[in-house]
Amino acid sequence: MVFKKMLSAFGVGGPSVDTVLTNPNTRPGLTLDGQVNLVGGDAEAAIEQVVIGLVTRVEVEGHDAEYAGTMEFHRMVVSGPLQLAPKQQLSIPFQLPIPWETPITDVYGQRLHGMTMGLRTELAIARAVDKGDLDHVAVHPLPVHERILEAFQRLGFRFKSADLERGHIRGVQQTLPFYQEIEFFASPQYASTINEVELTFVTSQYGVEVILECDKRGGFLSAGHDAFGRYQVSHADVDRVDWAQVVDGWLRETTSRYGSLRSQYGHGYGPGHGRGHGRGGMGVGGVVAGAALGVAGGMIAGEMIEDAFEGDFGDFGGDE
Questions:
Q1: Hey, how many other C-beta atoms are within 10 angstroms of the C-beta on 64?
Q2: DSSP, res 9
Q3: Residues 168-215: pLDDT tens digits?
Q4: C-alpha span between 312 and 316 (Å, rounded)
């Protein structure tokens, strides 16, 4: 999908930008290829730089407020200063590396309900910046992600929703200032002990750290609570194990080790996201990460990306 737009910041007769992706589909660790096409306006223009960046919608929960905003989390300069003559046409090719931790937006060709991702193109001229072009991007799972998601389905879990939470998970090495939560309703065989499960992938070039948060049901004399589990998976193991058996083992271990896991995760994570004792809401980690990213880590409340792909997508989309 391509959106052509005259750069409003430069007025009528200014240059225009049109970014075309070779393929809008990608995966963590791969690249997004395309070209930025510039067309000169009525007069010569001194372009300071052309920048592309990945933007997504992130949920933020603090002590007194909750909101969603647009975050640019990865950016690349595709051109430095250049002169654009009147009506001149110029194409700038690019290859944007996709961070390993980039969240998944599409599974089996269907958009995950609650997820959105776009590539934004910015053109800077005479100290004015126009966010001139936005193209939707689809990030598909790596094989190990697919096997684990398939295992949840084989075990009877039903997809609920997915979102991004700003912050860090304690003890987990993250490079992005947010993490993805993929939520499932418990299957009948687990319904006596679990209400819902939240699944988080923190991916690197070597493998995936899998974080489970199980919402446990209360008993006759006990209240419900959350149980957490962390598991390491190598990319090389993708075809070596029975993933339904592995995930079943993770769930049983996580729900049975509540005491030791709670002491491991503790309560010192900041506000979290409601039930998230093991998550790091807008705590120190999230703030530091945002500051380190500078412009790329900024949140813009209210500037929402329209998720044109949300709808009824069967097991991995739509509302339950």
A1: 6
A2: G
A3: 998 899 999 999 999 999 999 998 888 999 999 999 999 999 999 998
A4: 9
Let me know: does 156 contact 188? Beta carbons within 8 Å.
Answer: yes
Tell me if residue 70 falls in helix, strand or coil. Answer: strand
Three-state DSSP at 280 gives strand
Taking the CB of residue 290, how many other CB atoms lie within 10 A of it? 20
Residue in this structure with the two tokens 């300071």, named with its chain if needed: 48
Residues 273, 278, 282: CA angle, nearest 5 degrees: 45
Gap between the Cα atoms of 26 and 20, Å rounded: 15
What are the C-alpha distances in Å from 99 to residues 26, 168, 316? 11, 16, 23
Distance in angstroms (rounded) separating the CA atoms of residues 6 and 94: 21
The strand pair at 89-97 and 5-6 is best described as unpaired
Closest CA to 309 of 131, 143, 82, 109: 109
Beta-bridge partners for 168: 280
**What's the helix, strand, coil split of the chain in %, to 5?**
20, 45, 40
Query: What gap in Å lies between CA 104 and CA 149, rounded to an integer?
Result: 11
Mean local confidence (pLDDT), 77-90: 95
- CB neighbourhood size of 2 (10 A): 13
**Number of helices followed by number of strands (H, E) in the chain:** 4, 21
End-to-end CA distance of the chain: give it in Å, rounded: 28
Using left for φ > 0, alpha for ψ between -120 and 50, and beta otherwise, residue 294 falls in left
Distance CA 201, CA 231 (A): 10
pTM > 0.90: yes or no: no
pLDDT, tens digit, 9 for 90 and up, residues 146-165 = 999 999 999 999 999 999 99
Q: Are 198 and 213 in contact (CB under 8 A)?
A: yes
What are the residue ranges of helices labelled H in the chain? 143-154, 243-256, 258-265, 284-293
If you compute the radius of gyration of the chain from its CA atoms, what whole number of angstroms results? 22
